[in-house]
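ingest -> validate -> predict -> emit
validate: passed (alphabet ok, no gaps, 196 aa)
predict: started
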Amino acid sequence: MSDPIFDEDDEANTPLEPEEREQLIPSYITLRRELNEAEQINIADAAKWLATRKRDVLDEKFLRTLHTRMFGKVWKWAGDYRKTPRNIGVEAWRIPMDVAQAIDDAKFWVANSTFTADEIAVRFSHRLVAIHPFPNGNGRFSRMVGDLFAQQLGQPRFSWGSQNLVDPTTTRRAYVEALRAADAYDLTLLIAFARS
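emit:
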């Protein structure tokens, strides 16, 4: 059974550039499943850290710190905006201003009750994943941000299909379909998926 660490045909993960791959911290990792396990342990540590913090999701410094906490024991570039192009997301030079605009928009939505709390949290989460600010981990990061923002707005965390969305499954395909619909400005599927 093949398990290449950087499988280019793996649609669940954004392909990394060679210089980004070289920034893998644990030297024992040689298989994709080992990488996934290391990242999941790091994300669990970030969740523990979050439980001890007062936080404002609509703070750019907090967002970068959160990504660092989620992936900083696995990747040296954790928390740093990507500098390389991707087949998804905005051009790298636009990331700081697009993240700032997403934060400002979300603040406006909250202040003016433009949408329901769930829709505001999902819209913000979707904007972050669409920007794709980091070399990798953007989906997991944006879902955690969506959960935190929902809680900040007085709602429970989302279930996001109650599945591991890293591994290819029917649930992952439904999530990707919902993201594509949201990319076309129809958030109905993504809001429903977030609570499924």
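The domain at 18-194 is CATH 1.10.3290.10 (Fic-like fold).
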